[in-house]
Amino acid sequence: MPSVQYDAIVVGSGISGGWAAKELTEKGLNVLLLERGRDLEHIKDYVNANKEAWEFPHRGIMPTQQMLQDYPVLKRDYPLNETVLDMWVKDKESPYTETKPFSWFRGYHVGGRSLLWGRQSYRFNQWDFEANLADGHGVDWPIRYADMAPWYSYVEKFAGIQGSKQGLDVLPDGEFMPAMEMNCVEKDVAEKIKKAFKGSRHMFIGRSANITVPHQDRVNCQYRNRCWRGCPFGGYFSTQSSTLPAAMKTGRLTLRPYSIVTEVLYDKDKQKASGVEVLDALDNKTYTFNAKLIFLCASAFNSTWILMNSATDIWPDGLGSSSGELGHNVMDHHFRLGASGKTDAFSDRYQYGRRPTGIYIPRFRNIYSDKRDYVRGFGYQGGAGRGRGAEIAEFTIGASLKEALSVPADHWGMGVMGFGEMLPYHDNKISLNKNVKDKWGLPVLDMDVEIKENEKKMRQDMMNDAKEMLEAAGLEDVQTYDYGYEVGMGIHEMGTARMGRDPKTSVLNGNNQVWDCKNVFVTDGACMTSASCVNPSLTYMAMTARAADTAVTALKNGTL
Amino acid sequence: MNRRELLRSIALLTGASVVGGEFLLSGCKNPAAGKISFSPAVIDLLNEVAETIIPTTTSPGAKAANVGSFMKIMVTDCYTKEQQDVFVKGISEVDHQAKTQTQKKFMDCSAEERHALLTALEKEAKRFNDERTDKKAPVHYYTMIKQLTLWGFFSSKTGMTETLRHAPVPGRYDGNAPYTKGEKAWAE
Questions:
Q1: What's chain A's average pLDDT?
Q2: C-alpha distances in angstroms, A56 versus A72, B62, B74?
Q3: Taking a C-beta distance cutoff of 8 angstroms, is the pair A276, A319 a contact?
Q4: Which residue of B24, B28, B115 to mutate against A (max A Cβ within 10 Å)?
């Protein structure tokens, strides 16, 4: 097939890829955006966005036996349900193997998981970028908070993040739209936590990429809390609602769905990438596309999978493998435990509308003078709500049962869940399993990742601190819970092509360039050197915008 | 209310994990489900049983929500073979119980007789579920019927909009709205 020349190729159209496409086209480059899955058009293809529960055959929440068979991975947690089924990968078509259990929840379509994400948007803090250096785990980040701060501001302004300024170094403020409000119980609990812990613990509205005022061509959030199905108002940040239209507007973007990138083509003489090879998922033919710049934004593991399949004649383990770190240092956020309680107060108060975010309690462990028998820390997400159904005597049926279930619960409930940092361990790794092939005959990934002592110790605190805080806030009947955590369930895959200061111990430099191939940039979760305990997507956005700026400057200077 | 909360509240009301939702808690593997058929007469019967649990009051009840058809879909698609068998056997058991107690089929019983029959089944089901030595074994068939009734009714159009209140597009959020005792709950 004849090859086509572009200035830049972006692989993957999720949060990172969308940003790369926007930034590179706006800076004047002709960009080819490759997506392995189908196209999914904004609004038009959000087929379930306006359906009510009764319009789904199983009312939206119970998987069928068929779904359980078809989605052996997705069924391990909440993602499997009929309201968003078409936005998750078909597990059977894209298998992987598990040396140790790993839940990999993927979205293979235009927009990727930007359509499905939880939208929680937090900046890493100064200590996050210094943590590896301070405690000796992993390698030092080649960048600091000051390098990222202007890029956080830049992406926040465009994406639209609602939140409240708190003036806390542990969770730096950003460029916020007016904040959503905590409800009456949350406000009360926040006040009581502040008092009980003498201002050392804080609770406020969860910062999220839901817009609270009209922004660009997008309508502000309508409080339906159906973000996952795609928002017909463009109320939350996704590739479709935000970065893709901006890139399209330049007239310099070509979007090509059904394009599985099988390798980056490496030119030995120039020591640079010349383009990518694509397997067309529809016609099964191979195509070559050439460009001066390659941005890998295929989601952490898939970007690394592409590198592992590239330039193997020079480096048997793939492009970027010379350090021996490619595929290593896998991280996720460990969670699914915490505490919940209830209160008799506020029985004359209720809620209206479905707020698409909860509360956030930023890290307070191992910060300032606090010192634990583990390193790093965790934050909490959660919220209060008044459920449905008054208390009723056992064995009641008929009109009185119906009556009791037709009114709000007697109590408000409040729950929090901890999200903890996972350390970068060299032996937590992914690798190519050439014995197992996917639907297209391509080798699959094998997962060999586990949490270790540091995370397990932290989980004790995550559960106990939750109980302690809710009790201090005056809630009653406070119970801890642990649903159990399997690595991957955080859907925050990070690492495998980490940034660093030394080509001997890292895959990427401080500008997200592959040390061994400077015109290949990796800006999704793969680049992460450590994980922090906050949700990572905002950092990918900022990292991508920053790398795009570096790349285009270098391209124009002729240094790339 | 998210999925986990909804399943938990139904479980609390019926004293057993929601059938079909076990995978959420245990990740267990279910054997393949079989094909079963529900005659119109069976759906009528299920509607009447459901109507006894959630009757028409000032708003329509479970029969108007056609909870019987909902049960058919859920049992066919979401239950395991083992659970289906218990449910199907349970349908004839309802009539058997009715005949023993009243010498009539369930459909021929008065509203009072139906209420008394199901109240007895409530107690029998609780005893059965509590006494199961293997907690992963299927629950009593009446528990299945009740779970599907509550779920089917409160996620139906009439349940959500006439018995409860529903705002498809709230447009705003108020987390400190006044509430007067007796006002209906929001459907989601």
A1: 97
A2: 22, 18, 12
A3: no
A4: B24
Please give the Cα distance from A161 to A208 (Å, whole number): 5
A113's tokens: 């998981």
Amino acid B13: pLDDT? 73
Q: Does B23 have pLDDT greater than 60?
A: no
Tell me what pLDDT residue B8 has.
72
pLDDT the model gives residue B33:
59
State whether A81 and B3 contact (CB < 8 Å): yes
Read off the pLDDT of each residue in A9-14 and give the average, rounded to a whole number. Answer: 98
**Residues A229, A48: contact at Cβ < 8 Å?**
yes
- Identify the H or E element spanning A409: none
In the block, tokens 């812990």 appear at: A197
- ipTM for the whole complex: 0.93
Task: Number of A to B CB contacts under 8 A, please give it.
Answer: 167
Give A119: exposed, middle or buried? Use CB within 10 Å, 0-12, 13-18, 19+: buried
Residue B34 has pLDDT above 80, yes or no: no
d(CA A240, CA A234): 8
- Rounded CA separation A42/A245 (Å): 9
Tens-place pLDDT, residues A280-334: 999 999 999 999 999 999 999 999 999 999 999 999 999 999 999 999 999 999 9
Q: Give the pairing of strands A31-34 and A4-11.
A: parallel
CA distances to A426, B66, B138, B155, B185 from B164, rounded to whole Å, are 54, 17, 31, 10, 6
Query: Which chain B residues are within 8 Å of A407, Cβ to Cβ?
Result: 181-185
**Cβ distance of B4 and A405 shorter than 8 Å:** no
Q: Rounded CA gap, B171 and B168, in Å?
A: 9
Kindly state whether B90 is in contact with chain A, defined as any CB-CB distance less than 8 angstroms. no
Residue A178 has pLDDT above 90, yes or no: yes
Alpha carbon of B132: minimum distance to chain A alpha carbons (Å): 19
User: CB A397 to CB B118 under 8 A?
Assistant: yes
Output the pTM of the full model.
Answer: 0.95
**Interatomic CA distance for residues B150 and B155, integer angstroms:** 8
The pLDDT of residue B17: 74
Backbone angles phi and psi of A78, in degrees to 5: -55, -20
Is it the case that residue B16 has pLDDT exceeding 80? no
On whether the CB atoms of residues A223 and A231 are closer than 8 A, the answer is no
- pLDDT classification of B27: cutoffs 50, 70, 90: very low
* Contact criterion met (CB < 8 Å) for B157 and A52: yes
Work out the minimum CA distance from A50 to partner chain B, whole angstroms. Answer: 8
Residue (of A233, A198, A265, A134) closest to A529 by Cα position: A134
What is d(CA B125, CA B180) in angstroms, rounded to the nearest whole number? 36
Q: Retrieve residue A341's tokens.
A: 């309680």
How high is the pLDDT of residue B28? 39
